[in-house]
Write a structure and sequence with these properties.
The complex is a heterodimer of chains A (250) and B (251). Chain A has 250 residues and is of the alpha/beta class. Chain A is built from nine helices and ten strands. The chains are: A alpha/beta (250), B mainly alpha (251).
Chain lengths: 250, 251
């Protein structure tokens, strides 16, 4: 199979010389610079880097919330432009750093992309709420009354309803206390192991990447600096930039 | 009927002097604006009066259309200035106001309610363009602020696989309603809270109140249709400027 590595792991998403340049008032600015990488089906990938390094921009290019200006992205070995964008975004789901839940109830959020009859379907909402470790009883609650951690989990559940192949998470624990962040990390690990979901998660915290395991990529100024197993990359860095990042000198 | 001439206008300036004196006495600070407005409005309206006399006497369809076109150009430019953050705002508001004006005036003409004469089309066209201009400006400005203010909600919907039309549908509706609100409020209170200008003008000019009322009803319906068409066209065209063909928010 062409889309496999030597270890026979299937590549689900590939970026080839991916680039994004935006034109600002003071001239062009490179956000992503010749990014090339393969993401593997069923693996956890953490995209790590300092603030403003282009991590979020990268996720937005994968589900076409933003448009690339160079290179290509292949999903299941086909250019993402070949998929209908609304379908692509269901398969490459993105949960934002700040979860936004639509006015209504938790159940109406879960059924946001489904037929309206699902709003009153308790089996439906219970199934997805349990998947993210939430009590099905909250289905009828106003999302505004939930804690940030609960909102984040409802946002995950809402993305899971679409049955995505890839779940992209943008700094999902950045606004959580350490306890709530740990719950989310365990949930991500569970979703990966139990549902076989491919995870691409952005974080500025390399220790979190180490806790989650899998593969880590370090991005600085829109460029892929170094990648490797999460346990190795930050303990035995090969690049000076990685060393500086670990030493918080960047 | 009120006898009006330059002498009567000169006497009416007393009212503006009262406004200036009150402003100065209470230190409101609007004396200069009132003074300039007194002269400016007089010059503008007298110039328009002469221009209308000239156009009415010409009685040419080209002169009528030309006048309406100038009104729409100026109206759309004014609307676009309030929505300058929307790309091609002038062109969009021009099309929206044109659509509102053509549909309503065209229907009134084809249904035989008004005649194809300058004395009908130009005053009604002025009202249509004026109201459509306000509506287009409000709709475009509101739509932009709703979408930029709710960027996370819009992008969440897009990320969940919704089309841009679905993602902005509630903001679209809100914006069109906002553009139509003053007209809808006007319909509710007309005759009770205020006597509209067209009707008052006719009564002052000596027309029977009942006839003036019936014409005002037609004007009200015409303006409601005009702002509805303008609001919808302005919203459709504006929102399309905010997204790429790949359902990406670009503002």
């Amino acid at each position: 199979m062409e889309t496999t590595t030597a270890e026979n792991q299937e590549i689900i998403l590939s970026a080839r010389e991916l680039g994004r340049v935006v034109h600002l008032k003071d001239g062009p600015r490179t956000i992503i610079d010749s990014f090339t990488f393969d993401f593997y089906r069923g693996k956890i990938h953490t995209v790590v880097g300092p603030s403003g390094s282009g991590k979020t921009s990268l996720l937005r290019l994968f589900n076409r919330l933003d448009e690339k200006t160079g290179g290509e992205v292949l999903y299941n070995a086909h250019p993402i432009e070949g998929y209908r964008v609304t379908e692509l975004r269901k398969k490459i789901a993105l949960a934002f750093q700040i979860p936004y839940l639509f006015p209504g109830t938790v159940a109406s959020n879960l059924a946001y992309c489904c037929d309206e009859t699902f709003v009153a379907d308790h089996d439906f909402s219970s199934r997805f709420l349990r998947q993210v470790g939430l009590d099905p009883e909250i289905a009828d609650r106003d999302p505004e009354k939930l804690s940030v951690g609960q909102k984040q989990r409802v946002a995950f559940a809402r993305a899971l309803v679409q049955e995505p192949d890839i779940l992209m998470l943008d700094e999902p624990t950045s606004s959580l206390d350490p306890g709530a962040a740990k719950v989310i990390e365990e949930l991500i690990d569970g979703l990966n192991r139990e549902l076989g979901l491919t995870i691409i998660m952005v974080t500025h915290n390399f220790k979190q990447a180490q806790r989650l395991g899998g593969i880590s990529l370090l991005i600085i100024d829109g460029r892929l600096v170094e990648w490797g197993s999460s346990s190795e990359l930050f303990t035995h860095p090969r690049s000076d930039l990685t060393r500086k990042f670990v030493a918080e000198e960047l | 009927m009120i006898e009006t001439g330059y002498v009567e206008v000169a006497i009416a300036v007393t009212l503006m002097i009262i406004a200036i004196v009150l402003s100065r006495w209470q230190r409101i600070g609007t004396e200069k604006e009132i003074a300039i407005g007194t002269i400016q409005s007089f010059v503008q309206l007298v110039a328009v009066g002469y221009a209308l006399e000239f156009i009415f006497n010409l009685d040419s369809i080209f002169a009528i259309l030309g006048t309406i076109l100038v009104m729409i150009l100026v109206g759309s430019y004014t609307a676009a200035r309030r929505a300058s953050h929307i790309p091609r705002a002038w062109a969009l508001s021009f099309v929206a106001i044109l659509a509102g004006s053509v549909v309503t005036l065209g229907l009134l003409l084809t249904m035989g309610i008004i005649k194809a004469k300058a004395s009908y089309i130009i005053p009604l066209g002025g009202m249509t363009v004026g109201n459509s201009m306000n509506c287009a400006a409000l709709v475009m400005e509101r739509l932009h602020s709703e979408i930029t203010g709710n960027r996370l909600a819009v992008e969440t919907a897009l990320a969940l696989g919704k089309t841009w039309r679905e993602a902005v549908s509630s903001y679209f509706t809100k914006s069109v309603k906002a553009g139509m609100m003053s007209m809808l409020n006007f319909l509710k209170v007309v005759g009770i809270v205020q006597l509209p200008g067209a009707m008052t003008g006719m009564i002052l000019a000596g027309a029977s109140p009942l006839k003036a009322v019936l014409i005002q009803v037609i004007v009200g319906y015409m303006l409601t249709a005009a702002v509805t068409v303008t609001g919808l066209v302005a919203a459709h065209l504006s929102v399309k400027q905010m997204f790429t063909p790949a359902d990406q928010l670009k503002i």
